[in-house]
Design brief:
mainly alpha; 72% helix
């Protein structure tokens, strides 16, 4: 027999280590029934917490008074500068050890809070840049109609700013989903384990990395569609719905009526 036709043992070992389909098939049911739900819960909770914090921080960052900007700037700089793993440990382990236990002894709430605090620091800068990109005339026009500053920001400026940064927000939401994998450090209880925790347990039990491939496929099924959905929404907001009335365009064959010719016609 030709030795070249023999399978390469190293190649077989590589495939078996990462693509053991029997082990992947055994891991998938638990990933789907427990890990996927918990990952979505942690990520969704963190996104909500992050958006609430980010809106407040972004408005503070836009203040003309330095002593109002300072706390928000410190928050953004610190939690953007710290590694995620340190923030997760400080919130999930440090707070309960210091006697601050808003969620009791359950690590699930601390996991959401930790990822939410990190998300808020990044999202605050996204919101700030979006709000600052809105023409200042929008705020001035709203104020001239009798709206207060806060009401004009809430009803006119902030919605426009958020719409302009939807793609960047989608990227941050994808980060929140991926960073939820670090909450395994908090020792989640049975039934609370997310995708990475379950895959890691299987790797420790089988000494095979195929469960990590299974978990990676689950993460991709969450992050890739989210990116395309938000990009599609952004495109719809920019271009308008299909079948809608196109913007009015003046007929090229009919010259526009001079303003001076019609001024004062209606008395």
């Amino acid at each position: 027999m030709d030795p070249s036709s023999q399978p390469d043992p190293a190649s077989n070992a590589l495939v078996n280590t990462f693509f053991n389909w029997d082990l992947i098939a055994q891991t998938f049911p638990r990933l789907i029934t427990e890990g996927l739900l918990n990952t979505l819960t942690i990520a969704a909770g963190a996104i909500v917490v992050g958006i609430v914090i980010a809106l407040l921080a972004a408005l503070l960052l836009l203040s003309h008074r330095w002593w109002i900007r300072l706390p928000a700037r410190l928050y953004v700089d610190i939690f953007r500068g710290l590694p995620v793993i340190i923030t997760v440990m400080l919130v999930g382990v440090g707070l309960p050890a210091a006697g601050i236990r808003p969620f009791g002894t359950e690590p699930f709430g601390y996991a959401i809070l930790a990822i939410g605090i990190i998300s808020g620091a990044y999202t605050a800068e996204i919101f700030r840049s979006g709000i600052q990109s809105v023409d200042p005339g929008q705020l001035q026009a709203a104020r001239s109609l009798g709206l207060s500053y806060l009401k004009a920001m809430r009803l006119v400026v902030v919605p426009q700013g958020i719409r302009r940064v939807l793609p960047a927000m989608a990227g941050q939401f994808v980060k929140d989903i991926k960073e939820s994998s670090l909450v395994y450090l908090l020792g989640l209880a049975a039934g609370q384990r997310e995708l990475y925790f379950i895959a890691q347990e299987e790797v420790a039990r089988t000494y095979n990395s195929s469960p990590l491939i299974a978990a990676g496929l689950c993460y991709l099924c969450l992050t890739i569609p989210l990116t395309y959905v938000v990009n599609h929404l952004d495109k719809r907001l920019r271009e308008g719905p299909k079948g809608g009335n196109p913007p009015a365009v003046a007929d090229a064959d009919v010259p526009p009526t001079p303003v001076s010719a019609t001024a004062g016609v209606q008395a």
